[in-house]
Amino acid sequence: MGFSRFHLPTDYLAEREKHGLGLPAGAVQLGEFTVTLEPPPDLLEYIDKNTPKEEGGALPMLTHEQIATHVDEDHGIWIVIDDLVLDVTVFREVHPGGTHMFDKFAGKQCGWQFRGIHPPGTLDKWRGMLVIGRTTPLANEYEDRGDTRMF
Q: Which domain holds residue 29?
């Protein structure tokens, strides 16, 4: 099993500092980054609070055109896993695998890559926090051409 670490967002750390909490247990400073091996419980609350949600519980249908505009931090970073649209703008900063895959697949389908890396049930853990909508099938530019590269 590979080494994983969670990069703690500076906004999250500033919010903790404002409340006099300091660094979470197990967090260490590595150069300009603050990291931890396990996500602190309040980090999950922070991600949930800072990821926009639709009111009423029903997931809206989002068009491919809408999704394609969410490819940077100014507009929010969305990815598609199968028919689910995820807002990963805040989460990408703490993802153990880094931000590069979110940058590459922003506004695109990445279900094939997601399933190739993550064990079953991984999406279920984050679904309530990150899923913001549904979409019709969206082509995966790598899977469709038989490309075996994940990234």
A: 1-50
Strand ordering across the sheet containing 76-81: 71-72, 76-81, 84-87, 131-134
Task: Based on the fold, state whether residues 22 and 74 are members of the same structural domain.
Answer: no
What are the C-alpha distances in Å from 146 to residues 28, 34, 113?
41, 38, 12
Q: For residue 129, give the nearest of 45, 57, 68 by alpha carbon.
A: 45
Residue with the two structure tokens 């300091």: 22
Q: With a cut of 90, say whether residue 67 has pLDDT above it.
A: yes
Q: Do 18 and 82 have their domain in common?
A: no
> Counting runs of H as helices and runs of E as strands, what totals does the chain give?
6, 7
Domain's final residue, options 33, 50, 67: 50
Global pTM reads 0.65
- What are 15-31's pLDDT values in tens digits? 888 888 888 877 777 66
Q: How far is CA 132 from the centre of its chain?
A: 12
Tell whether 71 and 89 lie within a shared domain: yes
